[in-house]
Task: inverse folding
């Protein structure tokens, strides 16, 4: 199936470059563009994309507020935030808003294509180059909340998995850390998300920091 994408960025040349890369893929189609947050909402309402590539700093309505409003609609698209290294202050709020992850604007084309497919499939993605900075940024800001009842339903192994997720480890890194198979990790991750009522691993990271399961800077 073709992944329908809307590209949102206030720089025309950036949009053109993203569109060129994505339209070159046989199973990706750019169905709309937007130069500000309000335009993103209008375009998404009209064309109903699967994925929105969302810049944060845009006029009229910034990408953060546009993401909040977009994700609050019925059957919203996945939102993949395009970011730079100097936007940590926005990333925590973007995670809380329910975006599917972050990709650096300097990422190579193949990484952009893979990211679009990843979030379109319902998975979360944070660029490896920014993962731990993002985690530390929202960890510093998150107020620790009392542990919910659902947390007690996790097994010891599932609690380990949640902790490693919160440290920013990939499934492969978790498998190596615990000396178990990748398929086993996937099963544990799915059970953790189900028991805690979370949508994806990004929400799991937010959950872990907000409830004091891990702390900023923890190795």
Result:
């Amino acid at each position: 199936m073709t992944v329908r994408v809307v590209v949102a960025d206030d720089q025309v040349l950036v949009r053109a470059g993203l569109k060129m890369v994505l339209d070159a893929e046989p199973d990706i189609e750019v169905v709309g563009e937007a130069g500000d947050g309000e335009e993103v909402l209008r375009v998404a309402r009209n064309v109903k994309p699967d994925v929105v590539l969302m810049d944060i700093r845009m006029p009229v309505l910034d990408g953060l507020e546009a993401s909040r409003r977009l994700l609050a609609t019925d059957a919203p698209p996945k939102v993949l935030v395009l970011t730079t290294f100097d936007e940590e202050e926005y990333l925590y709020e973007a995670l809380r808003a329910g975006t599917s992850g972050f990709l650096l604007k300097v990422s190579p084309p193949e990484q952009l294509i893979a990211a679009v497919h990843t979030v379109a499939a319902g998975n979360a993605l944070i660029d490896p180059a920014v993962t731990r900075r993002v985690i530390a940024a929202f960890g510093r800001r998150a107020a620790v909340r009392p542990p919910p009842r659902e947390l007690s339903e996790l097994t010891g192994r599932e609690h380990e998995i949640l902790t490693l997720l919160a440290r920013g480890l990939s499934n492969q890194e978790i498998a190596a850390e615990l000396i178990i198979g990748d398929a086993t990790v996937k099963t544990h991750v799915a059970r953790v998300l189900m028991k805690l009522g979370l949508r994806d691993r990004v929400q799991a990271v937010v959950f872990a920091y907000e409830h004091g399961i891990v702390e900023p800077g923890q190795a």
User: Anything to note?
Assistant: The radius of gyration is 17 Å.
